[in-house]
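Hello forum,

I keep getting stuck at the same step: I have a sequence, I want structure tokens, and every attempt I make locally crashes halfway through. Rather than fight my setup again tonight, could one of you with a working pipeline run this one for me? It's a single chain of 229 residues.
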Amino acid sequence: MRVKEAVTITKRLTRQQSRQITREQLLQSAAALFAEQGVSGTSVEHIVEAAGYSRGAFYGNFEGKHELVLALLEERTQHELEEIQAMTHEAATFEETLDHLRAWHRRRDENLASWLALRTELWLYGLRDPELLPLLADRERRSREAIGQALEQGFTARGVSTPAPVEMLALIVHALDDGLSIQRVLSPAGSGSDCVVDVVELLMKSWTALARSNAAAAGPPIENLEKNP
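Reply #2:
Ran it on my machine without issues. Output:
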């Protein structure tokens, strides 16, 4: 019987694939440098040197540092939204969503300081450029919408209506997440990695009780009164 020789074929990357890899590595290097020394303190030369590329490779993907910052902001926003939406879609109950959220926060806690530093740098960069404010606002809006969807899932599972507009409740949760993340970095001994989720769980219990209290105070629906005079 004839034995066929094994032939190893190395698949070459297409030009588009190679460019995408270069772009991703430049973004990763920029993210690490921005977190460490700030956007203003990081030059294009710093970024390409850390990534191991030339200036030509950089300008083949971005017109300048400003465009890179925009791309990084969009990439981080989309990544976080996909993670939040996945937690909601994969969970059969709101309690499972909280479990997923706890695991997510524990993973984020491993690099919380650098994550927060990068996020703050991107905020500051946007706040100093009026043209970027709408992009920052859109980023926050999309984050709140994802949180709102998770909250609505929780209220529906409990058989109650939201005691206030879900947009307001999502804003509260989002703001608490930001504030507690800062406290976690400044005083890690004073709060655990589960503190954000613990607060969300406490709020949901309080809001659910309020919703039931409001429903009880409102009395039975009008159609029930007509059937039972």
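Residues 104 and 177 are 13 Å apart (CA to CA). If your local run keeps crashing, start a new thread with the error log.
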